[in-house]
Write a structure and sequence with these properties.
Blueprint: H1 2-33, H2 49-60
Helix pairs in contact: 1-2
Length: 65
């Protein structure tokens, strides 16, 4: 029974930063689609360098720490 608790605790710590980075990526993607990062807005317009620099590090972040 103690092993299950330690596995649960070990698994919950990586889930928190992975969830935070996922939510940050979605918020950033929506901001880019609405044109808040300098692009024309919408998924049909090209991304700006600012949008790429802001979003790619979040997307490339490992799902665990």
């Amino acid at each position: 029974m103690e092993a299950q608790k330690s596995v649960y605790r070990l698994g919950s710590w990586p889930a928190i930063p992975a969830s935070v980075s996922s939510v940050a990526y979605v918020i950033g993607q929506l901001a880019e689609w609405f044109g808040l990062m300098g692009s024309g807005g919408g998924p049909e317009n090209d991304s700006t360098w600012y949008g790429l620099v802001a979003l790619l590090p979040i997307k490339r972040e490992p799902p665990f720490f």
